[in-house]
Amino acid sequence: MKIKVINRSKHPLPKYQTAQAAGMDLYANIEAPIHLESLERKLIPTGLFMELPTGYEAQVRPRSGLAIKKGITCLNAPGTIDADYRGEVGVILANLSREVFTINDGDRIAQLVIAKHETAEWIPVENLEDTLRGTGGFGSSGVEKK
Questions:
Q1: How far are the Cα atoms of 58, 98, 127 from residue 120, in angstroms, in the given order?
Q2: Which pLDDT score is estimated for 134?
Q3: Where does this protein hold substrate (predicted)?
Q4: Spatial separation of the C-alpha atoms in residues 37 and 95, rounded to whole Å
Q5: What mean pLDDT value characterizes the chain?
Q6: Nearby residues of 118 by Cβ (< 8 Å), 6 or more positions away
Q7: 82 has binding-site annotation
Q8: Which residues contact 64 (CB under 8 A, 6 or more apart)?
Q9: What CATH number should be reported for the domain holding residue 42?
């Protein structure tokens, strides 16, 4: 798939690190280091602007290495970039650790996954089909009813 992109950053375009990778790394495009305090969140620019085809979205997801090693994650994950959005791709990073985390220009801060999606059409009805689960909510599946 080909996607039109404008790269106003100082960094290369995102790329797949292996042949079977689903996500491409996104890089921080900042003028000075950003210090993310414990439990703080900030929007980190990437310098990328894209034109996705209709029927596709770009999902911004956390990097597992940053999450497990440093407690850094993306809020609103996965963050959705819609096909009609033309603004700069930003990453909402949050520090869930107790230590300050420093983001430097060019750091890999998140990953981007391109995904196909459907557009739903609502059909109003009076009743829904019954299932074994029924109206059982959170934590109810796989639990035997007494």
A1: 18, 42, 19
A2: 85
A3: 63-65, 76, 80-82
A4: 7
A5: 95
A6: 55
A7: yes
A8: none
A9: 2.70.40.10
Instruction: Give the mean pLDDT of 26-47.
Output: 98
Dist. CA 35–CA 138, nearest whole Å:
37
The Cα 94–Cα 140 span in angstroms is 31
Q: Is the peptide bond before 33 cis (omega within 30 degrees of 0)?
A: no
Question: Does 25 count as an annotated binding residue?
Answer: no
Tell me the three state secondary structure of residue 42: strand
Helix (H, G, I), strand (E, B) or coil at 14: coil
Domain around 74: 4-116
Strands (E), the chain: 4-7, 24-27, 34-36, 41-45, 48-51, 56-61, 72-74, 79-81, 90-95, 101-103, 108-116
Number of domains into which the chain is organized: 1
Has residue 146 got a pLDDT over 70? no
Q: If we measure between CA atoms, which residue out of 85, 89, 94 comes closest to residue 47? A: 89
Q: Considering only CA atoms, which of 83, 51, 63, 71 is closest in space to residue 23?
A: 63
Q: Is residue 76 annotated as involved in ligand binding? A: yes
Question: Is there a binding annotation on residue 63?
Answer: yes
Name the pTM for this structure.
0.87
Say whether 65 counts as a known binding-site residue.
yes
How does DSSP classify residue 143?
A: P
